[in-house]
Amino acid sequence: MLGAVSLDTLPSGDMPEVAFAGRSNVGKSSLLNALTNRKNLARSSNTPGRTRELNFFNLDERLMLADLPGYGYARASKSAIAQWSALTRDYLRGRAALRRVFVLVDSRHGIKASDLTVMDMLDEAAAVYQIVLTKLDKIKMNERNKVLANTIKAIEKRPAAFPRVAAVSAIKGHGMAELRADVFSLV
Question: What is the CB-side half-sphere exposure of residue 92 using CA atoms within 13 A?
C-alpha cells in the first residue's frame, strides 16, 4: 500500500488505475477487501473520515486500486477535510492512468446531493465513472429494484456515467463476481 498526501507523492501512473469514491462510511474499504479476497487490504472503520489520504494498492503489477477519502461527513478538522478533498479533486481531474472511478452509493439511502456534486465534477472532467450500490444485504428485494431503477434513471443523461450500475454486498458477496469482472476488464 502507498498513501499519497499530495500530487507529487502519487505513484508513477505506469499501470492502469481504478479509483473508489463515495461518502464516508459507504463501505469503500470493505468493498476493496471483498473485491480482492483479502481481509485486511484496506482498513475499514466505523468512524467517518478515517481514510485521509489517497491509498493505492498494487495488484500484481497489473492494476492499481485507489481508495479515496470519503466525502460528506467526517470527524476531522475543516482544514484537513479541505486538504484531502482538494487532493482527491486534483487526482480525479488529471490522472491519465485512471480508467474508471467507481462511485459507491449506500443502497439504503440512494444518490445524495454530495454524490451528485462528485458526479458533476467527474462529468466535467470527462472521467468515466460507474455507480456501485453497496450494502445490498441491508435492504429488502423490492427496495433493491426500486433503488436500482432510481439510480439508472439518475445517470441516464450524464455524459461520463458508465451505463451499468453494480449492486453489491461486500459482506454476503452478492454482485461481487460481476463487479470483479467490470474492474478487471479495465486491465
Answer: 30
Q: What is the pTM of this model?
A: 0.88
137 with 176: CB under 8 angstroms?
no
CATH of the domain at 30: 3.40.50.300
- Provide the domain limits for residue 124: 2-184
Overall domain count for the chain: 1
Along the 187 residues of the chain, how does pLDDT read in single tens digits? 666 665 667 788 899 999 999 998 899 988 999 999 887 666 554 444 445 688 999 999 999 999 988 876 555 556 555 565 677 788 888 788 999 999 999 999 999 998 998 899 899 889 999 999 999 999 999 999 999 999 999 999 999 999 999 999 999 999 999 999 999 999 8
